[in-house]
């Protein structure tokens, strides 16, 4: 297992070309946020915007419309049960499926609709509730550009490995049974691609708060949309998330996701200039 090098973000994050436009930096769609957990989708979308995605849309419960527009006017919104959702899915580069989606019948329909509409060329980040639904129903997801983002309990549901059994070796074996890349989130996050495995050397207990995983998901989406779907951009996103948190934790007892999100543009500018 390779340790992610501190130089990686500067190698991935590039200065923006002078002739750029919003389409240059990718289209991201966040699908999630039921009436109870709307904040998860909002945090993921906020992280995607602040990490540089060119256009961000959110398919969420209608009740979240006002909160989303008040918190993040840069994002577009569509009810996640709208008949035009499949067309929207097919118009974007990166889909995030699952933050705050829930596991009820509506969530199941959204999951089914999304997986039916996604093409093999698109990147799909499978997060949160979507992981739980897929694990519960033993669904096979054969998308080559899938990125799975389970925390340890979600990984237990998906892999069958109890938390105490989640060693790098056993995690690698389980990850090899899934299409795409697997990010097993813990105090030292592990990343498994088809060809390699990586360890994130950073992380702080100050990150142990609700919404931190949603924030990582949004950063991942933005990095893939801008810098391409490959191990470098995925690992750089994971490292960036933790590096900013460690900086904030120097004088903050807890790192709130909204603080981390607000710090993204400055951190990325610093890396791009190296």
Provide a concise account of the structure shown.
With 274 residues, the protein is α/β, with parallel strands linked by helices.
| Name of the CATH architecture | 3-Layer(aba) Sandwich
Order of helices and strands: EHEHEHEHEHEHEHHEEEHHH
CATH class: Alpha Beta
Cα distance spanning the termini? 27 Å
Count of the domains = 1
Overall mean pLDDT score? 97
Number of strands: 10
Q: The CATH topology, please?
A: UDP-N-acetylmuramoyl-L-alanine:D-glutamate ligase
Describe this structure in words.
The longest helix is centred in the last third of the chain and has 19 residues, at 231-249. Helix 2 (38-50) runs parallel beside helix 9, helix 9 crosses helix 10 (231-249) and helix 10 crosses helix 11. The two termini are 27 Å apart. With 274 residues, this protein is an alpha/beta fold. A ten-stranded mixed sheet has the order 1-10-9-8-7-6-5-2-3-4, with helices on both faces. Helices cover 44% and strands 14% of the residues. It is globular. The protein has a single domain (2-272), classed as Ribokinase (UDP-N-acetylmuramoyl-L-alanine:D-glutamate ligase, 3-Layer(aba) Sandwich), CATH 3.40.1190.20. The model has no long low-confidence stretch (mean pLDDT 97). Belongs to the NnrD/CARKD family. Its EC number is 4.2.1.136. It catalyses: (6S)-NADPHX + ADP = AMP + phosphate + NADPH + H(+); (6S)-NADHX + ADP = AMP + phosphate + NADH + H(+). (6S)-NADPHX binds at residues 40, 100, 151, 214.
């Amino acid at each position: 297992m390779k340790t992610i090098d501190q130089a990686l973000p500067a190698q991935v994050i590039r200065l923006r070309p002078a002739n750029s436009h919003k389409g240059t930096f990718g289209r991201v769609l966040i699908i999630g946020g039921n009436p109870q957990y709307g904040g998860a989708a909002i945090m993921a979308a906020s992280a995607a915007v602040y990490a540089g995605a060119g256009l961000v849309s959110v398919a969420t419960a209608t009740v979240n419309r006002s909160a989303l527009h008040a918190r993040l006017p840069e994002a577009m919104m569509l009810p996640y049960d709208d008949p035009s959702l499949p067309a929207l899915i097919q118009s974007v580069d990166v889909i995030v499926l699952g933050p705050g989606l829930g596991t009820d019948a509506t969530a199941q329909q959204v999951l089914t609709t999304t997986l039916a509409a996604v093409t093999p060329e698109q990147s799909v980040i499978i997060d949160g509730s979507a992981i739980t639904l897929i694990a519960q129903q033993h669904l096979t997801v054969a998308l080559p550009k899938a990125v799975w983002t389970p925390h340890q309990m979600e990984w237990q549901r998906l892999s069958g490995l109890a938390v105490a059994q989640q060693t790098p070796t056993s995690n690698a074996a389980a990850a090899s049974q899934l299409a795409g890349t697997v990010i097993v989130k813990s105090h030292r996050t592990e990343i498994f691609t088809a060809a390699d495995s990586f360890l994130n050397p950073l992380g702080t207990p100050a990150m142990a708060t609700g919404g931190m995983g949603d924030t990582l998901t949004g950063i991942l989406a933005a990095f893939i949309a801008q810098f391409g779907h490959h191990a470098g951009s995925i690992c750089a996103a994971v490292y960036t998330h933790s590096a900013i948190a460690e900086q904030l934790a120097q004088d903050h007892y807890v790192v709130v996701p909204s603080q981390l999100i607000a710090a993204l543009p400055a951190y990325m500018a610093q890396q791009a200039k190296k």
